[in-house]
Amino acid sequence: MDILDPERGIDDEDTGAKLYYTDPHNQKRYDTVGTPKLAVNPPAVKSTRYQIQAEKLLSGRSLLAGEFTFELLDSAGGVIQTVQNDASGKIVFSPITYTHTGDYDYTVREKVGLDKTIDYDAANYKVTVSIKEEAGNLVATATGDAAIQFKNSYQPLGTEIHLQATKELVGKKLTDQEFTFELVNASNQIIQTAKNDASGQIRFDKLAYTETGSYDYTIREKAGGDSQITYDTKSYKIHVEVSDQKGKLVASVSYEQKPKFKNIYLEEKRSSSKDNELKDLTEKKRPQKKILPKAGEFNKTAAIVIGIGLILVGFVTLLMRKVKRNRK
Q1: In what residue span(s) does the Streptococcal pilin isopeptide linkage domain sit (predicted)?
Q2: Domain parsing of the chain, residue ranges
Q3: Whole-angstrom Cα distance, residue 118 to residue 232?
Q4: Whole-structure pTM over 0.70, yes or no?
């Protein structure tokens, strides 16, 4: 039984050997047996509290409540609290009670998770809480916690595609790497070139995507310099839609029309040996056309002939006169 009861008005009396007390309600006096125990009332304990807070930022998508975990460590490196962020990004640790003056050091850090789509913040923030006595009361102040901000970024797992087309050649057999094709982006820039294989398949290099969005392309054939080939001038449009499906990008490809290029080969006619022989024979049988001299050329020729004739006539005349003289 506790003999000290101020509410009941119980008084105590220390005689050294026994402790007597009087109950005012029934006016009786009691004594204790054995050595009396004195009750000691200690002074009231002074205390104060401080609550460390931080902020969470996530880029790339909306932040979810309870998505990330944060730890509060004491000066010895031991984890004393673990909390999660709320939907607005607030990180609030439980209040810490202090009963003595002094400086208390802490570390706030984010616990790295296993989500491969998240780039976690590896920063460690130091916080010091100082406890001082002012006007008989303990007062807490802190440094280092005003700028605690953890920044994470979300990056979904990427995806990639291969755009394809086909090639047909009419007039002769298609050969590997015979024709060239271009992949053009929405800005009309050539981003890839590819060649057909022997079966007519055209396969461009992979297109990698790291962000959601819409992407437009055009496939066309690059005209060559073969005069025997009629090149296909068609171009085909392709639309790619990239979406985020549970942390992984998915690309959906739609073709305005199935890309199929058709070229035509026309062989030049070559003359055979028999054709050449027949041509020579025909030319031999043809009557040769007499080439008449031009007017000027004819007059010149006639004058020469007449001159020669006159010379011959004169020569013959002289010869005959000489013969007659000899006979006489």
Answers
A1: 52-155, 163-265
A2: 48-154, 159-265
A3: 48
A4: no
Q: Are 242 and 249 in contact (CB under 8 A)?
A: yes
Name the class of domain 159-265.
Answer: mainly beta
Same fold for the domain at 48-154 and the one at 159-265? yes
Count other Cβ atoms within 10 Å, centred on residue 320.
Answer: 9
What length is written for the chain?
328
Block residue for tokens 């010869």: 319
Give the sheet arrangement for strand 90-92, strand by strand: 90-92, 53-59, 149-154, 118-119
| Residue 166 burial by Cβ neighbours in a 10 Å radius (0-12, 13-18, 19+) | middle
Instruction: Tell me if 105 sits within 8 A of 95, measured CB to CB.
Output: no
How does pLDDT run across 56-89, given as a tens digit for each residue?
999 999 999 999 999 999 999 999 999 999 999 9
Is the CATH number 2.60.40.3050 carried by domain 48-154? yes
30 compared with 111, residue with greater pLDDT: 111
